[in-house]
Amino acid sequence: MTAAGLGYVLLSLGIRRNPVKTDGFWGLLTEAKFLPLLLSAMLTLQGVRLTAALWKGQEVSAGGHSITKRSVSVVLLTLAYLLLISKVGFTLPTAAYLTAILFLLNRGRRPLELLLLSGVYCLAALLLIPGVLGLQLL
User: Fold this and answer.
1) What is the spatial distance between Cα 99 and Cα 116, in angstroms, rounded to a whole number?
2) How far is the CA of 122 from the CAs of 5, 51, 57, 136, in angstroms?
3) CB atoms inside a 10 Å sphere around CB 120
4) I want to staple 22 with a disulfide (CB 3.0 to 4.6 A). Which of 3, 27, 98, 137 is the partner?
């Protein structure tokens, strides 16, 4: 896990800088490499933590975890989203993905409440945040 995390850190560092420059703290958060770098660093730290636990003689296992229908649905939905972005563009697939993932991960909630929340998410992610940061979405 540590080796994979370090490999992902190196790959993340190779991501090109954004064409739109944003100064200050927001510039860091809007960089294309920020999230991959953060996640790969977290994976590396988790690998180091698990390795240290093994060296201390603690039993470390992934037992008790299994693949569920929900996790398979999330993976398939994400793959479909990534394919649609390349064919249709960014805005519509992103709005559909945000709505679908919200409904999938919150089964049992009132649909009207989820639809309203989805609208707020889409408004924030596709209009407000890019507007404040001066980003032009594809």
Assistant:
1) 10
2) 31, 40, 47, 15
3) 11
4) 27
CB contact at 8 A, 38 and 8: no
Q: Which residues of the chain register pLDDT less than 50?
A: none
> Which helix (H) or strand (E) segment is 136 a member of?
none
Q: Is 130 exposed, middle or buried (0-12, 13-18, 19+ CB in 10 A)?
A: middle
Give the integer Cα–Cα distance in Å for 4 and 97.
28
Closest to 123 measured CA to CA, from 91, 84, 82 = 91
pLDDT for position 34: 80
Q: pLDDT at position 85, please?
A: 86
**Nearest C-alpha neighbor of 70 from the set 113, 107, 108, 119:** 107
